[in-house]
Recover the amino acids of this structure.
C-alpha cells in the first residue's frame, strides 16, 4: 500500500520558511548543479618573493625564506554558495574550522564609505549589479529569503567540515533564535556546544529599552569528537590572590602548591566574552564597517584548531579570520562577494606576509580566485530561467542553424549545428572575445572524449582563431 500521508503532516517541531518544501511537500535539496566548475585563478601572491625578484635577490631569498609551501591559501571573490560548491571536490570533509559572520543589517550590506588615498577622503560606494542581486536574494522576501539563503550555505559548510571540525556562526540578537533552529536541523541538536555572548561597550544609547551591547556566536561541532584546546584559551582569575578563591571546588583538594599552579595557569573562559569592539582609534581598524576585533578570532581559532589546520571564512569582509589564522600558523580559505572586501583582505594579507618575512617568521603564499564568471551563469539559470534557451533558439534560427536539444548536444557548450560544424551561442549579456573563444575550446575539448586535441584545432579554426 502506498503511503499517502503528506510529509508536512508528520513533521515534528521545526522551522518552516518559504522555499523549504516544494508544492508536493517534499524537501528541496540544495541546488548546486550549475555551480561546480573550477574557480578561476587570478593571481598568486607571495609579496616577499616578488620583491626579492624585483631587486635581483631571488636566489638569496629562496635560500633563506621561511615560506611554507605545503598549502597555498585562497582568497575567493564570489557568492559563497558557488564558491563552496566549487570547493567541495577538493575540500569535502577537510576544513577543520569555519567562522561565519553573515550580513544582518538590512540595507547596509553592500553600501559603505570607502576610504581613498590617505584615507582622509571617503567616497560612498554603491552596490555593484552582482551585489544588488545578492541583496535581493538575501532580503527580497524578508526573513523567509534570509533563512533559505542561510540554510543553503550552512548545509554546504557542514559538507566541507572535517569530522572533528567546529563551526562558529556569528549572529545578532534579531536573527540568532532562527539561526539556532537552522543549526540544530543541519548539524543536529546534540552537536550544539555553546551560545557565546560577545559583550562590548560602545557609545550608542537606547532611550526606551536596555542598550543592546552583545552579539551571539553559536558554536556547533560536526561530530562528538572535536578539537578543543582548553590550555590555549585560559585567562587570569579575577581574584589576584590564591586565598581569595574560598573553599569550593578545586580549591578544596590538593596541596597548597597544586592550588597555586592552578591559579597561575588561569581559568578557561566562560561562554560570555568581554572583548572590546574596535573603536575609531583602534590600530587594527581598516575602515570596513563590520570588521571584527582580532582578539575575538584569536580565541575561536586557538580553541578550535591546531597549527597546520584549515580555517575557512565564507563571509570574510576585511579578512580578520585569515589575518589571525596566518599569525597562528593555520592555513586559510576566505571568500566574499564584495569587491571592496576582497580588495581590503588582499591588501591586509600582503602586509602580513611582509611583516612576517621581515620578522623571519613563516608565512604561506595565497592565490586570488574568481567565482564570478560561473556565478553569472548561475544567476542566469536561477533568475533568467528559460530566457537563455529562448535566446539561443532565436539566434540559431536566424542563421538557419539546427537547434540541438540538450540530449543531442555532444557538449553543453555546443548548442546548434550548421554546414557540418557545431555552433556555440554566447550568453545574452556578454561580449565574446578571443580569450572566451580559447576557453570555450578547451572546455569543449575536455567534454569531447577521444580525439581531444584534433577536435580542439578544428573548433579553433572554425572559430577563425
Ligand atoms: C558582517 S560582514 C563580515 C565581516 C568580517 N567578519 C570582518 O571581520 O571584516 C559580512 C560580509 O559578507 C559578505 N557577503 C554577503 N553575502 C555574501 C555571499 N552571498 N557570499 C559571500 N560573501 C557575502 C559581505 O560582502 C560582507 O563583507
Amino acid at each position: 500500500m502506498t503511503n499517502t500521508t503528506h510529509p508536512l503532516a508528520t513533521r515534528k517541531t521545526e522551522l518552516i520558511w518559504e522555499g523549504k518544501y516544494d508544492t508536493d511537500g517534499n524537501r528541496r535539496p540544495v541546488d548546486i548543479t550549475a555551480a561546480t566548475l573550477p574557480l578561476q585563478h587570478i593571481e598568486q601572491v607571495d609579496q616577499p618573493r616578488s620583491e626579492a625578484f624585483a631587486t635581483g635577490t631571488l636566489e638569496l631569498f629562496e635560500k633563506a625564506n621561511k615560506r611554507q609551501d605545503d598549502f597555498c591559501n585562497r582568497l575567493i571573490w564570489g557568492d559563497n554558495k558557488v564558491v563552496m560548491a566549487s570547493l567541495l571536490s577538493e575540500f569535502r570533509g577537510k576544513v577543520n574550522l569555519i567562522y561565519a559572520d553573515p550580513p544582518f543589517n538590512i540595507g547596509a550590506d553592500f553600501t559603505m564609505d570607502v576610504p581613498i588615498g590617505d584615507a582622509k577622503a571617503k567616497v560612498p560606494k554603491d552596490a555593484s549589479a552582482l551585489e544588488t542581486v545578492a541583496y535581493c536574494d538575501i532580503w527580497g522576501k524578508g526573513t523567509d529569503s534570509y533563512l533559505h539563503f542561510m540554510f543553503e550555505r550552512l548545509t554546504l559548510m557542514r559538507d566541507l567540515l572535517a569530522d572533528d571540525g567546529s563551526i562558529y556562526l556569528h549572529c545578532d540578537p534579531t536573527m540568532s533564535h532562527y539561526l539556532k533552529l537552522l543549526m540544530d536541523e543541519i548539524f543536529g541538536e546534540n552537536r550544539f556546544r555553546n551560545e557565546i555572548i560577545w559583550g562590548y561597550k560602545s557609545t550608542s544609547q537606547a532611550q526606551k529599552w536596555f542598550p543592546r551591547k552583545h552579539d551571539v556566536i553559536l558554536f556547533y561541532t560536526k561530530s562528538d569528537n572535536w578539537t578543543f584546546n582548553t590550555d590555549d584559551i585560559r585567562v587570569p582569575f579575577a581574584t589576584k590572590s590564591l586565598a581569595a578563591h574560598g573553599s569550593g571546588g578545586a580549591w578544596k583538594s590538593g596541596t597548597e602548591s597544586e592550588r597555586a599552579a592552578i591559579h597561575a595557569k588561569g581559568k578557561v573562559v566562560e561562554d560570555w566574552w568581554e572583548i572590546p569592539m574596535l573603536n575609531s582609534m583602534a590600530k587594527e581598524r581598516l575602515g570596513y564597517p563590520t570588521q571584527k576585533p582580532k582578539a575575538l578570532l584569536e580565541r575561536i581559532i586557538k580553541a578550535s584548531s591546531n597549527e597546520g589546520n584549515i580555517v575557512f571564512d565564507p563571509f570574510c569582509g576585511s579578512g580578520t579570520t585569515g589575518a589571525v589564522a596566518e599569525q597562528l600558523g593555520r592555513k586559510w580559505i576566505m571568500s566574499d562577494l564584495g569587491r571592496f572586501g576582497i580588495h581590503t583582505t588582499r591588501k591586509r594579507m600582503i602586509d602580513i606576509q611582509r611583516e612576517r618575512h621581515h620578522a623571519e617568521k613563516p608565512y604561506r603564499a595565497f592565490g586570488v580566485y574568481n567565482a564570478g564568471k560561473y556565478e553569472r551563469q548561475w544567476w542566469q539559470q536561477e533568475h533568467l530561467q528559460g530566457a537563455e534557451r529562448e535566446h539561443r533558439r532565436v539566434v540559431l534560427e536566424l542563421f538557419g542553424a539546427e537547434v540541438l536539444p540538450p540530449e543531442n548536444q555532444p557538449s553543453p557548450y555546443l548548442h546548434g549545428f550548421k554546414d557540418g560544424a557545431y555552433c556555440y551561442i554566447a550568453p545574452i549579456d556578454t561580449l565574446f572575445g578571443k580569450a572566451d573563444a580559447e576557453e570555450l575550446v578547451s572546455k569543449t575539448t575536455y567534454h569531447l572524449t577521444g580525439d581531444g586535441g584534433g577536435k580542439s584545432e578544428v573548433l579553433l579554426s572554425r572559430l577563425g582563431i
Notes: The longest strand covers residues 161-171. The chain has two domains: 37-227+271-376, 387-462.
